[in-house]
Description:
The protein is of the alpha+beta class and 358 residues long. The chain folds into 2 domains: 8-42 and 121-191 and 298-357, FAD/NAD(P)-binding domain, CATH 3.50.50; 48-69 and 93-108 and 193-294, Polyamine Oxidase, Chain A, domain 2, CATH 3.90.660.10. It has 10 helices and 18 strands. The protein has helices spanning 16-27, 76-87, 120-125, 169-176, 181-189, 250-255, 261-276, 321-324, 327-345, 351-357; strands at residues 8-12, 31-35, 48-53, 59-64, 91-94, 111-114, 131-132, 139-143, 146-151, 154-160, 162-165, 193-203, 215-216, 223-228, 241-248, 282-294, 309-311, 316-318. Strands 7-2-1-11-18-17 form a 6-stranded mixed sheet, sandwiched between helices. The chain has a 5-stranded antiparallel sheet with strand order 13-14-15-12-16. A 3-stranded antiparallel sheet has the order 8-9-10, covered by helices on one side. A hairpin with a 4-residue loop joins strand 17 (309-311) and strand 18 (316-318). Helix 1 runs parallel beside helix 9 and helix 4 runs antiparallel to helix 5. The radius of gyration is 22 Å and the shape is elongated. The two termini are 18 Å apart. Bound molecules: flavin-adenine dinucleotide. Residues 12-18, 35-38, 43-45, 67-71, 136-138, 166-168, 171, 195, 197, 247, 290, 293-294, 320-321, 327-329, 331 line the site of flavin-adenine dinucleotide.
Amino acid sequence: MxxxxxxxxxxxxxxxxxxxxxxxxxxxxxxxxxxDKSRGVGGRMSTRRLDWTDANGSTHPASFDHGAPCFSxxxxxxxxxxxxxxGDGLLARWTPRMAPSxxxxxxxxxxxxxTPDMPxxxxxxxxxxxxxxCCAIDALRRDESGWRLESGGITVDQGFAxxxxxxxxxxxxxxxxxxxxxxxxxxxxxxxLPGWALMAVTDEAASAEAQAWDLAWPSSGxxxxxxxxxxxxxxxxxxxxxxxxxxxxxDWSQTHLEAPAAExxxxxxxxxxxxxxxxxxxxYSTVHRWRYASVPRxxxxxxxxxxxxxxxxxxLGACGDALGGAGVEGAWASARALAAAINASSQTPLPHDRxxxx
Length: 358
Ligand SMILES: Cc1cc2nc3c(=O)[nH]c(=O)nc-3n(C[C@H](O)[C@H](O)[C@H](O)COP(=O)(O)OP(=O)(O)OC[C@H]3O[C@@H](n4cnc5c(N)ncnc54)[C@H](O)[C@@H]3O)c2cc1C
């Protein structure tokens, strides 16, 4: 719980790592203030909402989970967090109908998706906490009065006892450089994998049998995942329409990283049509390039054996999927480890400690 006398901590980034860290630190008594450059929270657990116009001039709402479509829990700790969130109605188990020749290996962990959209989990973690969106922090300054955060050369907030950088490594490096050059260097060296994503609205297949699946993993071609997005739990379906998100493979995305969006869109539409086994009527389509989509699982944390970074002497920390072992679970694990380290090393007695010992 926040009190007026609680030490202030700035959290930069409101994805899974930043939101989890903020929630844990707030419950431990810190006065957290979260900043994110995007319009909303969730980071790569994102849902794009838009309106498209049909041939008659009528507009239709659409939404696409164009970042992480789902995640699974491998550790007992994360499984317990997931169970709690599912019990609170924030997560639903996703059991997609698999396309012919695509199958979930026996014993695969459950797939979970936040509902009603991907950012819902982060929104819930951040409920009641101050979050400043549309605010890209591009410099951190520190003097005797604490940390000061800048955006475009202007101070956006100051007087923080500590700062947590919970953003992808390439972006974190610039903020860390002046204060922890070694971390910045390691962040810069961290490999991140790109991903192109196609979002499309098509007509429905003529028969239910012709479209009896929600998830395909094509074994060849540009696409890694094809997801019937409107069939995920808690998503809205619209009569006669089908909403797709198709993710290109890492290799294809790397090769086409700088290709024009129109060229990428045409190639991914062709691949989706091939997967559907028909040429659908395209009502709407667009693509999104994730330059830093994910961390190679084997490479995550290979540069460092730590799951997070914390310099208690200056009050600077870093967390995220790249440190925690990749994916949503890695981001959560990294944030949790950092929050524990901050609380353990905090030299300022926290408000509830002061009350307890008063
Ligand atoms: C296409 C795609 C598919 C994926 N599939 C899966 C999957 O199947 N399973 C899985 O577990 N994971 C998957 N992931 C990865 C998963 O989404 C990430 O590992 C996880 O969400 C990372 O969380 P994070 O908090 O570390 O970083 P992010 O989610 O990237 O959050 C960082 C936040 O920081 C903000 N930010 C960045 N720079 C600044 C700045 N200078 N100032 C202020 N704010 C800033 C960003 O706007 C963002 O909100 C996928 C990701 C993508 C893109």
